[in-house]
Amino acid sequence: MPKKNATPNVKFNDPDFLKRIRFAKLAEGDPILNYFYSLLEVPGYSLFERAYMDTVIPPNIVSVGWKHYTGQLNDQIPILAFDDSAVITVYVTISNANDDLIEEGYALPTETGDYWYYNVSAENSAIEGCSITVEATDLPENTTTQTFRIPA
Asked: Fewest Cβ atoms nearer than 10 Å: which of 44, 49, 86, 106?
């Protein structure tokens, strides 16, 4: 009877797999990443495994307070985004009904870390049909993007 191969069938040519392995190895060797992932201790999992798992799960954008956008300067748009480790950046793009760019920039985190606020920097008198696009990025650079259209 032929011997079965006990090695799992892993796609070593999968670019995402290789990216995940490289990031997890980087986390082991980099003092800052090593410290960060050591804070996220999960019983039974090594630092390498925790960093690897972080590359698999992208951030989650739970809500965007598009109703707070009135087109006025200094409007604050609240955003709730979280990750299994940490969301590092939240980038916001506001476009008009024709998808022409009105403004873009980074939202600022609050003390809780899950809530972010984008401060509007350009006035817009025609907000009907505008879109607000939010992109959340975590430490291994996974991104999640959601677009909300303001009803006419």
From this structure: 44
